[in-house]
Amino acid sequence: MVVGNQLSLLAHPVLSLLLLAGSDVTGGELGRSPNIVLIMVDDLGIGDMGCYGNDTIRTPNIDRLASEGIKLTQHIAAAPLCTPSRAAFMTGRYAFRSGMGSTGRVQVLLFLGGSGGLPPSETTFAKRLQQQGYTTGLVGKWHLGVNCEQRGDHCHHPNQHGFSYFYGLPFTLFNDCVPGEERDILTDLQQTLRNLTLMLGLGLFTLVFVRACGLLEVSLWLLAALFLLSLLATAVWYLPFKLLPTWNCIIMRNQEVIEQPMTVETLPQRLLAEAEGFIKRNVDRPFLLFFSLAHIHTPLFNNPAFAGKSLHGRYGDNIEEVDWMIGKITETVDSLGLANSTLMYFTSDHGGHLEEADSHIGQKGGWNSIYKGGKAMGGWEGGIRVPGIFRWPGRLAAGRVLDEPTSLMDLYPTLKHLAEDTQPDRELDGHDLMPLLEGKVARSQHEFMFHYCGVYLNAVRWHPHGSESIFKVHFFTPNFSPPGAGGCYHTKICQCFGEHVTHHDPPLIFDLYRDPSESHPLTPATEPRYAEILEQTAAAVERHRGARSDKQVKILWRPWLQPCCGTFPFCGCKEDTINPQNQ
Predict the structure, then answer these.
(1) Catalytic, out of 75, 143, 161, 474
(2) What is the mean pLDDT of the chain?
(3) How many distinct structural domains can be found in the chain?
(4) Which domain covers residue 221, as residue numbers?
């Protein structure tokens, strides 16, 4: 009996130790906030991965994340273009609230040397986690601005928005970064300015010739004025546009320009090495890593290790390279023993770019599965429904699929919750996903979601209580070109205003539960709740119209704001990859 009591006494501390040892299986180290690894691909279509139905492009590492975690099937971007979508993702608020929308043809930042960007007054999830003691890092694409008033004020820079460490592209990857690729930015304006410059030059040459031959008296003052006007026209065209690779295609480490223009061919390997290095340097403390890939935005990479390996040309090769990079990040997390204490998240900023194709490479944009539309097409589902995968072994059940409406904006309140941040905040449009992910609730908090094209409210979705239906109401839709096509192939980017859209009165209504491809508009004859849908969404729109910012995306190039390695305008340097200075 005494022996039994002694064994019983010994059992209590042993049991306690076992429980403590097992705590890693249920959410990480005791008393420590979880690590966060966020992975975002640029322009990735929801149909480009095996776990979302693609059976020809090989994505075993992304598929593994889904099988070991939770896959969201109705994960929605707040905008179908990168700048407004990423602003909403970072802040948990629709882009119009921070002035990151546009009324005109340009809906994203076009010049790194512009004053537009995420306002210094805005709060990002990185800033909130930094205040909670996290080490925060962004590796890859930013595209939310750099300077405000002068070169070097860095008011929009990632370091000012909560990221302790930044390495990557303060702008984005685009065609002008690669010699021989077609131009991307304001090509019609470039052509107009070029023609004007040539006309002025030709006129000046003609007048000089006429005067020299004595055929006509031409004032020297007129020739001087025309010469100065020609110089001005040349500068307005040549400096901002012909030197775009120097101005926009740069790499920064924190606030220092370390490569200008950048060497695109080695960019994926460098971004991956930086992301892995950040994880390894911070293994002993809670960290947030936002790994924002340059893939799969054009120009597509042409890595010999993946070239010709897929069944979908260069685009498929790039997807398989992305999958390999995801595998390396996952391997780094797991090999350091961080799997059970790290929440990993995978997504895209918006849908694939359907109009991106040429005769040499073929299709260069993604596949948005059965969903209509794509990048820059307002509220059509193909441009805003994106992959969403969460993995956290021991905390989130493996292999689950959630069909409830969720948003990229939900990451902000979710990360706040995980960091135990209870401080007051601004008005948020996202919701904490943990109750849904952990199975504590079955229904999303998003009864209504709002879809924007620029600053214009384009569509609303309503998920009524007690119903599987998800109704989508389109107030206007972009006009596809040529007629009957599935995108804006004449302009490559759909516009949100004027003759570029068709307004619908009454609005177009679809039930995404029964008609996910938005092919069959509902009518009063086919939908008993038709009138109720219009009433409920109209009331939701009125409640939604809150504080708006009068600011919009600013696109003009301002030389005095241009980040520069060296003395402006003689900017140029190459990164020292032999002796990197990681911090």
Answers:
(1) 143
(2) 90
(3) 2
(4) 187-241
